[in-house]
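**User:** Here is a favour to ask of a fellow structure person. Please take any protein you like and set down a full record of it. No explanation is needed for now; the record alone will do.

**Assistant:**
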Amino acid sequence: MLCVNSAQRRGVCQEMKFLTVRLIALLLACALPTGAWAVPQGPERERDLLQRVERAIDRHVLPTLTDFSKKAHALSDSLGAFCRVGDAESLRAVNAAFRATVLAWARAEHLRFGPLRGGDVSMRINFWPDPRGVVFRQMRRVLQAENADLLDPAVLAKQSVAVQGLGSLEIILLRWARKPPVDQGAGRPDYDCRLAKAIAGNVANVSDMVLQSWTRPGGWRSRLLNPGPDDAIYLNVDEVAGQITKSLLLGVALLRDQHVLLLFELATGERRRIKLPFQRSGLSVAYIQESVKSLKQLHEQFRLTDYARGEVAWTKEWVGQTFGTLERAVDELELPGDRPIAKTDVDETTLRRLRFYTNGLRQVIGRALAPAAGLTIGFNELDGD
């Protein structure tokens, strides 16, 4: 049992019992009439929320997307250099640039609103989840056919999203461990290399489109900071602040559903095998670490916890402490990159803790902090709670 095998596990159990009691009290508070929340109203609240939105955009959203765009362009450039030279040093530069781009996407993945809304654009960057191995199957056909038209990023952008993004590029980089990427005899790059360059170019183009959609005059930054009846999506500041809150909730949900729960079910024997993003490249743990850090940064810039009073005042410190707990727990993960993850590779106590606190964060943000700020969050953001 979790609570009896060691002092560490007993400590974890006590933490979880404490939060369970708090969450029960929270759910009871949610059943009270709306007036019990004592939500501030009026122009002062609207100005405050808009300032929080501006801070979140300028200190989190735009820096995160800018960094991803820079990393994507550096990856494209490194592949261009490698395809020209084809030596070991330039290949190491490609692998380093790929790692940097993947982790930059881990920090940006939760920003699925504005130009990333709807999912199609984000899937062009990385097609995930992919439980049926669509990326591998489609890439195998593309590499076998060697269609020269796909070497143009503009043509590639019109193909299936499964062959456009970082996951498809990962397949090529992994192939290069077995197959030389450059035809040294002919002195020219082979199809794999030119396709890899096209994929990286496509990702860079998508990153440019997303960033420009945010920053151009009348773009998404302007729209979110100037809501009103003429905007088809954001009629008022509550809807804008709700959108930032949903992005934070989505990020926690992605962390829990696509990483933590799969590892936990492997640890408990509910699953025999799992697939994590960029697992075969050995980037799974770093991906989770960067996701947690980015979500923590968004929380720190938006700070809905400033509205926590009365029945939910305890959440003010708890949220920040919980992000710290998640960071420490993720640091304890060690996953193999050269073979499938086995049950013996993961610790059930660590995964139980991660599962508990990611779920707790979603409950607290969605059911306590958002209502405390007077925000209404749609059902889909809390589905499954």
